[in-house]
Design brief:
This protein has a domain of 153 residues: Heat Shock Protein 90, CATH 3.30.565. Helices cover 54% and strands 18% of the residues. It contains 15 helices and 16 strands. It has a five-stranded antiparallel β-sheet with strand order 2-1-5-4-3, sandwiched between helices. The protein has a five-stranded mixed β-sheet with strand order 11-13-14-16-15. The two termini are 53 Å apart.
Length: 530
């Protein structure tokens, strides 16, 4: 039956996938020239956006250059007493500006610096080393500065970035300005590029990007990355250009959630998505049908096994009770000793039969949510001792090494005695059923964090790792080894879990195949109110 179901499922999947594959391939091969033209147009639009960001950053730098020239001209007319305060106030007004310097020419012997807090930027280098560093900077970039002087003589002021490795985490922009005395003055702006991006470019980038684009500024050398959208990770930029005023930084643009290719292929992608969704929906329907059929088959098999196991469990004690009671009724037993033995067997089998019936009835109540619990404070050691005493003689006669190790001084806990007794007896019965050559069972009590526990361990066949998460499910029984050959209802551990849940407790299982199992029932000190 399972093979037939699998064949039907396979045929349905093939019938669904063949049309889907055909339609998808057809869509992917249907591109035309108009879509390519649209891609080129859109690329040009993105290029224009990056250009506008670069132009904006250069315009800001140009406006700052003008402000610095005006400030320097005004500074010459101010008294020396107010010079420091004016410089600090001016620099604060221009975010990301660390300072600036002026020189008359590339090989000027004296360079004036205007800055505040420059020591921190230079990583503890002395202020008097700035002059040497600036001279080297100008000499190393002589060709750029010479070109700027040429532009200025032609009546055009241009701002250029210069290569500098001395000013840590800063960039230098230089320009030429004419003083009131008609002297060309070389000025250098010392900027913090990271701060410039965050405080100057960021608002402009946010304004341009809005909800349609993600614009990013990066410099991998200093591990710097800024995105207009916080949660966006730059994976594939559609366009990327260097920042004009900070060449080591790049500005890139990407479409939100889509690439340019995604947009120009929107029709194709939409159709593919719809086909895929329809295919997935049909496959999901097939999977639901297959899973339900498979579950019904498995449930039918489980119920059949349950009926078979319960029938066997009921038939065995009934047969023994019938046989021994009939023997006694016909007065075939002559000795009192033999008669007592038969009475004991009848009593034991009656108890066993009652326990099976109670298990089924309790499970039925549990399923219907009608099982009531009556809690009271008990001494766990005394409670477990009674159970141990009741089983000790019987198990030792069967050759079991049955022991009880208790932790003294345990506080009383709130439990339903009948339910907890049923849980512990179920664990003992399982230990007896699944013990092989090593007939050793131990009951133990103790403390674990905020819990008091009772533990039943054996040296039996153990439980495979793949079965350990399933053994508390109703009717579940492992299907290999001694477990398969040992009869049972498959409800014992389900009832144990239900009882522990009702006590706000939990079950811990430690087991290895052929080494034994250990079930630990943990009860909170006082999780249930009377």
């Amino acid at each position: 039956m399972n093979r037939t179901i699998k064949k039907i499922g396979l045929i349905l999947v093939i019938i669904i996938l063949l049309p889907a594959v055909f339609l998808t391939v057809n869509e992917l091969t249907s591109f035309n020239e108009n879509e390519k033209v649209l891609e080129n147009i859109y690329s040009g639009q993105l290029e224009a956006i990056l250009f506008s960001i670069n132009q904006y950053s250069e315009d800001v730098a140009g406006s700052w250059a003008t402000k610095i020239d005006v400030f320097l001209d005004g500074l010459n007319n101010a008294g020396e007493r107010n010079t420091g305060e004016m410089i600090d106030s001016f620099i604060v007004e221009l975010p990301s500006l660390v300072g600036f310097f002026i020189a008359d020419s590339i090989k000027d012997s004296r360079i004036d610096f205007y800055t505040s807090g420059m020591e921190n930027v230079l990583q503890d280098k002395l202020i008097d080393s700035l002059n040497v560093a600036a001279k080297k900077l100008l000499v190393d970039n002589e060709s750029i500065i010479t070109r700027l002087f040429t532009y200025k003589r032609g009546g055009y002021r241009k701002i250029e970035p210069v290569d500098t490795k001395f000013f840590n985490r800063t960039s230098v922009l230089v320009f030429i300005e004419e003083t009131p005395e008609k002297i060309n003055r070389l000025t250098g702006l010392i900027l913090d590029p990271n701060e410039f991006v965050y405080r100057i470019l960021s608002p402009k980038i946010q304004e341009i990007a809005e909800q349609d684009f993600v614009i990013s500024v990066q410099n991998p050398k200093v591990n710097f990355a800024f995105n207009s959208t916080k949660d966006f990770e730059v994976v594939d930029l559609q366009q990327e250009r260097a920042l004009w005023i900070f060449p080591e930084y790049t500005v890139g643009i990407s479409l939100v959630g889509k690439t340019i290719e995604d947009l120009v292929q929107q029709r194709v992608i939409t159709n593919i998505i719809l086909i895929s969704l329809l295919t997935l929906l049909l496959c999901f329907g097939v999977w639901i049908v297959y899973r339900n059929v498979k579950r019904e088959v498995q449930l039918a098999q489980i119920k059949s096994d349950f009926v078979s196991n319960v029938s066997h469990e009921l038939r065995t004690p009934l047969a023994l009770i019938s046989m021994f009671s009939e023997t006694l009724e016909m007065d075939r037993v002559q000795s009192d000793e033999k008669r007592k033995e038969y009475y004991r067997i009848i009593s034991q089998e009656s108890t066993r039969l009652g326990r099976i019936v109670n298990t089924i009835l309790n499970f039925s109540k549990m399923e219907a949510g009608k099982r009531a619990f009556h809690f009271k404070e008990v001494d766990l050691n005394e409670f477990v001792q009674l159970i141990y005493n009741n089983y000790s003689f019987h198990l030792k006669n069967k050759g079991y090494d049955f022991s009880f190790s208790k932790k003294e001084g345990l506080p009383e806990i709130l439990v339903d005695e009948e339910a907890v007794s049923e849980a512990i007896i179920n664990l003992i019965d399982n230990a007896v059923k699944y013990s092989s050559d090593f007939k050793e069972i131990e009951i133990k009590t103790g403390k674990q964090n905020d819990f008091i526990f009772v533990e039943v361990s054996d040296k039996g066949i153990g439980i495979a790792a793949e079965d350990q998460k399933k053994i508390f499910e109703k009717f579940y029984r492992a299907s290999t080894g001694l477990v398969h050959n040992t009869k049972g209802t498959g409800l014992g551990l389900t009832l144990v879990k239900f009882i522990m849940d009702a006590h706000s407790g939990k079950i811990e299982l430690y087991s290895e195949v052929n080494k034994g199992s250990k079930f630990r029932l943990l009860f909170p000190y006082s999780s249930i109110k009377l």
